[in-house]
Design a protein that fits this description.
0% helix, mainly beta, 7-stranded antiparallel sheet, 23 strands
Length: 273
């Protein structure tokens, strides 16, 4: 099954992304309509993994400005930020629920736990309570309908994409890749997941983008070459991703591809909702 291409030529309103080197990066926002680009979080520390709030007025991210990694939220208009978590563990990779009331994130209490699974937790943004989900993985992505999480895990000695269902509290493996399959992102209708495959089973270097039904099945190739990875799917039907060319976008059919930001120090793009 393939998604039906959305014949809309315009990009989604805003694109948050990471600028700089891994573990020493900042967060910026690009407006494709005006071709303007500005910094949102640029302290002398690592600020990365942005994710939009449903109102598109705030961005959640992780930062080690206070020593270990904590979760923060920044107001896009004013640039004012504030912490959400402040434990002795590392909290990374926040993703907002569609209703904006909770964040899911990865938690690691061992030092220097970067490219490894962690425990997936949820923090209530109203009351502040934090709850473990009882599953391990990385880069949790909340489905737009709010019923599931997609995430990646190397629990079976290779990175694969998994889906967790909140109602049944069950997890199933979605992909079976010869290489590593990483960084899932949902389609706006919650029916499909886009992810990237690496150049081989022992590398983390991105190579191609694939789309698979969220129910499982045979994935189909969307883009290959130029280090294509870290995709994000907009409501207008365009899929942005980072590559050796910078940040690009491609339509759902793979027929149209163009560069948005030409600099390979731009990565981890996320469309506003």
């Amino acid at each position: 099954m393939r998604p039906t291409a959305t014949p809309i030529p315009a990009s989604a309103p805003l694109l948050a992304y990471v600028y700089g080197n891994v573990r020493n990066a900042d967060i910026r926002v690009f407006d494709p309509a005006s071709s303007t680009d500005r910094s949102i979080a640029d302290q002398n520390c690592d600020e990365a993994e942005p994710g939009w709030a449903p109102d598109n007025k705030r961005i959640f991210y992780h930062s080690d400005c206070a020593g270990n990694y904590d979760l923060y939220v920044v107001d896009v208009g004013s640039g004012a930020s504030q912490p959400i978590t402040a434990s002795t563990c590392d909290e990374r990779e926040p993703e907002s629920a569609p209703d904006g009331r909770q964040l899911v994130y990865r938690r690691n209490c061992a030092p220097n736990a970067f490219n490894v699974d962690g425990e997936l937790w949820v923090v209530d943004l109203i009351g502040g309570s934090e709850t473990p989900l009882g599953i391990s993985g990385r880069t949790p992505a909340w489905s737009p309908d709010g019923t599931r999480l997609a995430f990646m895990s190397d629990r079976n000695n290779g990175w694969e994409i998994y889906v967790y269902d909140f109602a049944s509290r069950t997890t199933r493996q979605l992909t079976d890749c010869a290489a590593n399959c990483r960084f899932p992102a949902w389609s706006p209708d919650s029916r499909f997941i886009v992810y990237h495959a690496t150049t081989g089973p022992t590398t983390a270097e991105a190579e191609s983008l694939w789309i698979v039904s969220a129910q499982g099945g045979v994935p189909h190739l969307l883009v290959t070459g130029d280090g294509a990875g870290r995709a994000t799917w907009s409501a207008s039907g365009w899929i942005a991703f980072n590559s050796q060319n910078g940040i690009e976008e491609v339509d759902e059919s793979g027929g149209q591809r163009r560069v948005l930001l030409r600099d390979d120090s731009h990565w981890a793009p996320v469309w506003s909702r």
